Amino acid sequence: MSTPVLERSLAELYGTPTPEVELVKLKGDASTRLYFRGRLCDADTREPETFIVMQLPEDAQRSDEGGAQPNIDRLPFLEVGELLAERGVPVPKVYAEDLAHGVVLLEDLGDETFHAELSRTPRSEWPELYGRAVDLLAELHERTADIPASSIVAQRRFDRELLEWELGHFREWGLEALTGPLAGDRRRALDHAFASIVDAIADMPYGFVHRDYQSKNLMVSPKGELTVIDFQDALIGPRVYDLVALLCDSYVDLDLELQDAMIARYAALRRIEAASLRREFWWVTLHRKLKDAGRFIFIDRVRKNPDFLQWFPQSLVYVGRAATQAPNMERLREVLTSSIPGFPNRVSKPSSMME
Fold it and tell me: What distance in Å separates the CA atoms of residue 28 and residue 304, rounded to the nearest whole number?
């Protein structure tokens, strides 16, 4: 994509004449969207002084995350953002939207993510940090307990088709793209394990799911307040899914003791029996982290972005941990051990197709 066309959106935000701005391209993540920081030139005193430009791809309405594609009239990011803002969840302000030119202007929340805060904070202080993130998540789920049927969130669901697609995504990219097709007993064992995971999750209580509530999707203000971003894929899914995304974050090596403490904290805040939530947590961890491992290979092979390969090993650490917590997953562990050298704790970063 070329430099974004901003004239119309700047006029919506600042009026006319439109100000002169400087744009700096920001490093992207796995998204197909591009981001820039806009800053008013020195002589202009209008507010806000800075903003974020989200430049959309041509197929911005489409997701390659699997599942049915609902008929939508509004950009999912904008619709879900409005829903969360109306419910009092901290999300970025939308200053202007010019979808004809694929541009949305957003509040500039700075560069400090929860992940960055963790990386510069002693691990002894992590319980306090994670307590804040868990408290916000519990509040988010309380405030989204009732979703209008007309909302795009209610029209998308972690049904069996999507659950199976994500596990198939791991098989295709996390296993077979690296080691070749599975056959015979190993294929049957994997099929059986996947069916057990899907059955367990399909029977769980469901609710609002952000879908990627993790350390790089929480922005930290100078006062330590958290703001939620990257919520455009929200849907109805297992109530524990976002907690798994946070506490089994592939970008962070979190120990079991802290995970258990935060599961108990969330359960108390949501008035859920802790043992039940813990069982749900490890089943969903198996599903989520297998999918993540496959996704990181997909991003390298298909999107030509090798940056996420470094997180493939940590994803499998969490898979190994979950496979000892969820019942009857011995054969899954055997298949993964025989297929992935070093599984679960000594897996190497895969080679990139870009190398």
Answer: 13
* pLDDT tens for each residue of 122-140: 999 999 999 999 999 999 9
Q: Domain boundaries in the chain? A: 7-106, 114-339
Chain-centroid distance of CA 129 in Å reads: 19
Q: Compute CA 35 distance to the chain's CA centroid, rounded to the nearest angstrom.
A: 17
Among 331, 243, 345, 251, CA closest to 296: 251
- pLDDT, tens digit, 9 for 90 and up, residues 194-251: 999 999 999 999 999 999 999 999 999 999 999 999 999 999 999 999 999 999 999 9
Amino acid of residue 287: H
Q: What are the structure tokens assigned to 290, written together?
A: 């297998």
CA neighbor of 26 nearest in space, from 219, 212, 314: 219
- Provide the pLDDT for residue 43: 80
What is d(CA 248, CA 252) in angstroms, rounded to the nearest whole number? 8
Of 318, 322, 335, which is closest to residue 249 (Cα–Cα)?
A: 318
**d(C-alpha 183, C-alpha 135), whole Å:** 45
Please say whether the structural domain 7-106 has been given the CATH code 3.30.420: no
Judged by DSSP in three states, 183 sits in coil
Q: Write b or e for each residue in 71-99: b if 16 or more Cβ atoms lie within 10 A of its Cβ, otherwise e.
A: eeeebbbebbbebbeebebbbbebbbbbe
Q: Which of 163, 350, 138 is closest to 265 using CA atoms?
A: 138
226-228 and 50-55 strand pairing? unpaired
- Tell if the pTM clears 0.85, that is, is over it: yes
**HSE-CB for 326 with a 13 A CA cutoff:** 27
Q: What is the token pair recorded at 197?
A: 């995971």
% the chain with pLDDT above 70: 95
Grouping H, G, I as helix, E, B as strand and the rest as coil, residue 119 is helix
What is the assigned CATH class of domain 114-339? Answer: alpha beta
pLDDT at 62 over 80: no
What whole-number distance in Å separates Cα of residue 138 and Cα of residue 266?
6
Dihedral angle, C-alpha 240, 287, 205, 257, nearest 10 °: -30
